[in-house]
Amino acid sequence: MKKGVYLLTSLLIVGSLVLSACSDQKDTASTSGSTTQTEQGSKDQPAAAPGGESGLNEPFTAADMSKLPAVAKQRTDTIIVGLTDPSGAFTPYFTQSGYDGNVNSLLFGSLVTVDEKGLPIPDLAEKWDISDDQLTYTYHLRKDLKFSDGSPMTADDVAFTWTIQFDKAYDGDSMVPTLPVKGAQEYKEGKAASISGIKIIDPQTISITLEKPNATALVMLGDKVLSKAYYGKDYKFGQLEYIKKLHSTPVGNGPYKLEKFIPGQEVRFVANENYYKGKPKTEHFIYKTSEGDTWQYLETGEIDYSSFSATTENIDKLKSLGFVNIIPYTPSTYGYLQVNLEHEALKDKKVRQALTYGLDRQSIYVDANQGAGSVANIPSSPISWAYTEDGINPYKFDTEKAKQLLEEAGWKEGAGGIREKDGKQLSIHFLGSKSKQTDIFIAVAKENFQAIGVKFEPEVFADFNSLVSKMESGDYDLVSFSTAMLTDPSDGLVQFLDGEIKAYDNPKLKELYEKGLATSDIEERKKVYKEIFQLLNDELPIIFTNYKKTVYGYNGRIDNLAVSPFVGLANSLPDWSLKPAQ
Amino acid sequence: MSAYLTKRISYMLIILLAASLLIFSLYALTPGDYISNNIKLSPERKAELREIYGLNKPLLERYGIWMKNAIHGDLGYSLAQQKPVLTLFNEYIWNSFLLAIVSTFLTWLIAVIVGVVSAYKQYSWFDTLMTILIFAAMSLPSFFIGLFLIKILAVDLKWLPPGGMLTTGTNAVGMAYFKEVIHHMTLPVIVMTLLGVGSLSRYFRSSMIDVIKQDYIRTARAKGLKESKVLFRHALRNALLPAITLVGFELPALFGGSIIIEKIFNWPGIGQLYMQSFGLRDYPLLMGFTMLLAILTVIGTLISDVLYQIADPRVRLH
After folding, report:
1. Within-domain flag for B22
2. Rounded to whole angstroms, how far apart are CA atoms B174 and A541?
3. Which of A15, A107, A292, B13 has the fewest CB atoms within 10 Å around its CB?
4. What ipTM, to 2 d.p.?
């Protein structure tokens, strides 16, 4: 028996050692899981991008390529990238998951794409005109465009692509149907045979007219183009069922063609010889389905490219691998706490400001993420062309200031140090998704809020849907969220206007929002958004929290790699090439 | 026998009907639906989509539609995967089945051997060692063993691939393909076997110990039979009888996939698909899969009842 006890003890000791050695792996897994969940639906964004802040500001070049695993050395014409969960439905505008969006962005080209600042640049359309009244957009297609099956692409295909999104049976999540296109409503209601605002001028020129100016329309309408001959063969108004049969056999016009989809395993691409910029440099590209933690695949050379939270720990580990190039990256999103404006206490701007001052966002979002990162104060990512810090209150952590504002708002200290007004205690019911970040938030916020006399009651949900339902029932004060990927600065503002944030109604904001969309002039728009950001920064209908930072680690053999915050790797992928292995 | 089967099958149908109602209400009452998951949509668009998907209809009507289609062999269309639910099952279940059948076979084989030897040599060094190992294996969580083995065998030693079912980008066919799959399934099968062997071998051990003490074993020995014959012909057969009940329960497990193992080893199985669908509230897929498991469970119990009668003539079914 003595022997048995001895053995058991030594097993336990070994076990606990191993456990501590492996714990860092599990941590990354859990953070990436939760981020993917809040960012579901964000299109074109490389998946499994965990949150965090960066300690890396410059690209890092691999130091020792001889460490490259043999598996990765053997590949001569194939690049492999991890993607969480492509479902196999690869028809743009009809895909239901953002991961299929990633796949589509390689299979299909757009009329207009955006550069690294989010400004429109030509793609399939070589140029475009916007009428003086900002209502009519005319796209001029390049000559001799072809789909991957060799058939020509013309203005007809563009018209078809726009039209089906206004069909009453359309169930995708494209934002195009929200645009006020002339004649679209009549078409949707079945009163017109076509959309009167869409005009095919010649096979290379097409125009579309809106009823109201909207600066986001240029990029939104200038998206991917479906072949009418292929996707529109059986189209009848109100019937889109047939398109489901075509989901697994896409015909596109992007840099790559679909070679094979293996459910739950791989999406294989092969270079498209009909691509207008010429055949991509690397013949084969593969999206490998890999949920959550991708460390082991990068380390063993099974994938060439992966994203990680930009913690010091991750960056050091990536550097130590030797064969990995690293580039820093800021996703175009912002994190925030949604505030329940239907609750009496939170209707008061001073209380919202007090909570922001009283919350140590620096510790929660920056320091706890290993000394790197940034605090958000406006609804725009720092990489956007509209981003500004001019006239923006940084709400630096200040307990005294918070207390003073609460005093001014009439909340006086009562029993147990909790502030009261009209016999009611000031308490905050917080909802968050289960993640490491939420755990940190709760630990710090509890202390912070206690210091200013606010009772803090956190509630954590393992499941995102349950959290949303709880929020919809109105039983909350603060909920932690992150936006989906934002392309235009107006994207980050929609939630203040469309009723998503209940009980927030600001005519001034509405007016400015319309003004921001009424012109396509960037300088003009910058001014308007600055004013909007200043307004929201002061009013705080939501509490802005943080920006994430990510790093991409990739096989040092890959040349010409760049990642855009708005279109992911789609723009630079055709240029990626593999250097010969050492 | 046939009268018994008719009766049993009609009971089964009633059970399944009740199960379908339960499954439907369970998912219908879970907070949130497929639409509420997409934070990008405006409230009006959400209402429009609920109309298109029929999610705004009364519950009872939705149940009726679902049942009607299900009886016609149509389990619906997955909202997230954009494919018919049955097609998805066909794409994913066989991968799960492959893992399950191999590991179940190994689990039973090892458990029987370990159980018999431990029982026969009760309190020997082998028995003690096995007891310790088995309890150690049982008390470690599966994700831990899984990650640990990936770290050692795949990342550090590079003997086995860290996950997946095929080498990415492979064009292997025939024997080469077969070998590749075996190479990839080794790690998950080891973990699944390790986790399963524990309880099952304890089960066989105790059942064997009971049998060995029976009078007929003493009689067999007294007759002068060889020890191996006593052990395997007389003792093991009787010790395995209660295990037939377990066989029935294995049936749904064979097709149900393993959420944790598949996730850790990136195995393209139904368990992973189910978990993703749950996060997305893809009800057609969730309901279809749960219903499938219910059907398999009911069939499994029927099979084990029938098998029991075949194996043990003392049992009469009526």
Report:
1. no
2. 62
3. B13
4. 0.83
